[in-house]
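Hi Y.,

Following your request, here is the sequence exactly as I used it, all 423 residues.
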Amino acid sequence: ARGVAPVATSQPNTLYMFALAAAASAAAPLESVDGAAFFEPFSSDWESRWLVSKDADFQGTWIHEAYTEPEGTPGDKGLMVGNEAKKHAVSHLFKEPIDPKGTGLVVQYELHMKKDLKCGGAYLKLLTASEELDHDGFKAETPYTIMFGPDKCGGTNKVHFILRHKSPATGEWEEKHLKKAPTPLLAVGETHLYTAIVGADNTVTLLIDNEEKVKASLLESDDFTPPVNPPKEIDDPDDKKPDDWVDTAKIDDPEASKPDDWDEDAPMMIEDPKAEKPESWLDDAPLQVPDPEAEPPDDWDEEEDGEWEAPIVDNPDCKEFGCGEWKAPQIRNPDYKGKWTAPKVDNPEYKGVWKPKQIANPGYFSDEQPHAMAPIGGIGIELWTMQDGALFDNILISTDPAPAKVAAEAFAARSEAEKAAKK
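Below is the corresponding structure, written out as tokens. Let me know if you'd prefer a different format.
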């Protein structure tokens, strides 16, 4: 088991011993999960199952790496992004596609950050079963069915859930983005569990560390953008607003006129007429004077250095009594009204807000079972990131939530051991 390096001392290092004890109590690394359609624990023979992309776009390397010490699960390793500022891609193709129709789908994985992620992704792609899947590895154009996981850069910091959906009307594919995406947990040295559940009832539930963060529906137009099912009617692209259409609701009252006593030239601020100059005010006193407390240096020689002059400072009497030309303080002019404007009245020519007429949407369809997404032919991790150190582990895909719960229990044991070892 790995642990914190012991400190040389004649007495046992209690923190180190506690960390070892916590780690020893953690469960052993998961090797398999019964009932899962796919489970990847990234054991030492991971390269026999996964293929690093040979495409020229992807120059980043992948490292079989241990977790940050003290480890929650001693001896466990995952697959880590190996380079900064490079594109990385690795994939695994299934022998038989996974079809979520009638059952739904669960995708779950653990993510451990060994470095601070400032700009990059840490998500998975469930690859669409198609002839485009290449046994030579991931390519930029490799199609996916679901993209799920954290993405952080600039103003973006969220857990993506994107369904790539095929229109039964046009045959075109379109990405459907979950609107209310949760914020990921990406602290250095911590492991977190990301779970997406697509139900046969067309619900989508996202969990972080087995805690529900978002629940949405593939059938609700407000939950995804663009909505999975398009509207029946759309704006007529050929309909244009008439030139004489008036959409100004209010106008200046044509019968209103500026009052005779309205003075637009009156200043906003005037001198306070009630203010009086203090009796102690020193009109003729200078604002600055030689420093009365200054003395010439001991080594000052007038024959060599000339006549010594004290440095100039603000006149202390001015601070106490005030001096120079006295001016009354400014106050708001009670007669100030500013520029006159006519009051607004309803526009008798107003026709309302113009909208183009609605026409039947030529791309309309109604998919009542969008959970029956394109079958999954493989899984890929395809990232562009400015930082290395994102470690993936225990990737699970299932058509039944039960296996994911088993893996979630193993994660909980790891998480608790990590927390205890760091105390």
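The longest helix spans residues 401-422.

Thanks again,
Q.
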